[in-house]
Design goal:
Number of strands: 6
Largest sheet: 3 strands, antiparallel
Order of helices and strands: EEEEHEE
Radius of gyration: 12 Å
Strand order of the largest sheet: 4-1-6
Structural class: mainly beta
Helix content: under 10%
Oligomer: single chain
Low-confidence stretches: none
CATH topology: Jelly Rolls
Strand content: 35-45%
CATH superfamily: Jelly Rolls
Length: 69
Amino acid sequence: MICRYGEPGEEYFILQTGQAEVKVFDDDGVLEEIKTISDGTGFGELALLYSCPRTATITSLTDCTLWVI
């Protein structure tokens, strides 16, 4: 687990290598996969820009190398 929906967000992530799965809650409150991200993808900016909790759960699918800012 890289980050979890609803947790405070204090970091921005850049996925240098590997793959991760992005999940969000749908209108019925069910956690569903929306996409898979890979090398070079950045995420976590919404929590930083708007001082809000994480809006998605990101889980690694493979071994990953992440940069955390």
